[in-house]
Design brief:
Blueprint: H1 2-11, H2 16-30, H3 32-43, H4 49-78, H5 86-109, H6 114-123, H7 128-148, H8 155-162, H9 164-189, H10 195-215
């Protein structure tokens, strides 16, 4: 798919509108491999820097906002289910309230983390304006980095990224990091029952038993 994307970009050099649509589509769905190809085309002079930069930002934001909207409208059906944990929803809301900026920025640079991170932001109904702002900042930073280092990306990096083993390793590492983070987060948020309250309950049961014996 990456080879087709590169060929389309080269063949559509005479039609900037179709080229723009292709870059937006690639940045939205193909993501990082498409950004690498666009960066190398900019380095070879096939594409203009500002043209590629703007379309990469638009494509990244379109994908992120799409995931947010999917999570937001899916929440209307998920929250009504009995198995849904409302306490976890409140904890995620408090987490996004305090760490939304770094969460969105890190997810933009971690393959496999964007779908979960941005859809969860929609499920908890995080502010759309703030989400769009942080998504815009992350997309601008990422596009600038890809274009800046486009000339330094050799062909063997693309071969490695197209290798199914590389994708599997990245997926397993991302899943492991997210699982460990969720496990640690749930431990921190787990309520601790006060010992004093348990002691009062035991004393109350003993007093009731003594009263029943005395009445007999």
């Amino acid at each position: 798919m990456e080879e087709l994307f590169s060929q389309f970009c080269e063949h559509l050099s005479a039609n900037p509108w179709l080229q723009s649509v292709l870059i937006i589509f690639g940045s939205c769905f193909v993501e990082d491999p498409a950004r690498c190809i666009v960066s190398m085309l900019v380095a070879t002079g096939e594409l203009g820097w500002l043209f590629a930069f703007g379309n990469m930002v638009v494509g990244a934001m379109a994908g992120d906002i799409g995931l947010y909207l999917i999570g937001r409208y899916a929440s209307m059906f998920i929250i009504k289910r009995r198995w849904f944990d409302h306490l976890q929803l409140q904890s995620m809301k408090s987490y996004y309230r305090n760490h939304a900026a770094k969460t969105v920025l890190l997810a933009r640079f971690l393959p496999g983390a964007r779908m979960l991170t941005f859809s969860v932001a929609g499920v908890i109904r995080y502010s759309f304006g703030r989400f769009a702002f942080w998504t815009f900042c992350a997309a601008v930073i990422q596009a600038a980095i890809f274009l800046k280092f486009g000339e330094m990306i050799p062909d063997n990096v693309i071969r490695i990224m197209k290798n199914p083993r590389f994708s599997a390793v990245v997926f397993l590492l991302t899943f492991g990091v997210m699982y460990a983070a969720c496990h640690l987060f749930s431990k921190r948020k787990r309520p601790i029952r006060p010992l004093q309250h348990e002691g009062n309950e035991q004393n109350g049961t003993k007093e009731q038993a003594n009263d029943s014996r005395s009445s007999e």
